[in-house]
Amino acid sequence: MQVYRKVIAVPKDRKIALEKVPFKPGTPVEVIVIPTETVPSDIYAYTAELVKRKKIPRYTLREIERIVHESRGVRA
User: Fold this and answer.
1) Which residue in 37, 55, 56, 70 has a CA-CA distance of 20 to 30 Å to 2?
2) How far apart are the C-alpha atoms of 37 and 35, rounded to whole Å?
3) d(CA 50, CA 39)
4) Is residue 14 one of the residues assigned to a domain?
5) Which residues, 6+ apart, have CB-to-CB distance to 6 below 8 Å?
6) Are 16 and 33 in contact (CB under 8 A)?
7) Is residue 68 part of a domain?
8) Is the distance from CB of 22 to CB of 2 less than 8 angstroms?
9) Residue 65 is assigned to a structural domain of this protein
10) Is the residue at 29 inside a domain?
11) 59 with 70: CB under 8 angstroms?
12) What is the tens place of the pLDDT at every residue in 4-62?
């Protein structure tokens, strides 16, 4: 199955047109319109949003070091 994906913003007239699709004229196709999720602009914004959404506690480097050493069975 060949898939064609296009992400566009819906204009004020709320009409969407697909141009230059990779299918021959007359080919039956199914069109599904799904709103895209808001994607943060960079990895830092994504990480901050993920930490907030998953309610992950913030740790200092020393706390992270202690957790890693404990999981490996190393005494600090």
Assistant:
1) 37
2) 7
3) 11
4) no
5) 18
6) yes
7) yes
8) yes
9) yes
10) no
11) no
12) 888 888 899 999 998 888 999 999 999 998 888 766 678 888 888 889 999 999 899 99
Match 């199955």 to its residue by tokens: 1
Report the C-alpha gap between 9 and 13 in whole angstroms. 11
Q: Does the predicted TM-score (pTM) go above 0.70?
A: no
> What DSSP designation does 39 have?
P
Q: Give me 8's structure tokens.
A: 């566009």
Buried residues in 27-46 as b, exposed as e (16+ CB within 10 A): eeeeeeeeeeeeeeeeeeee
Is residue 47 within a helix (H) or strand (E), and if so which, with residue range? Answer: helix 43-54
- Domain total of the chain: 1
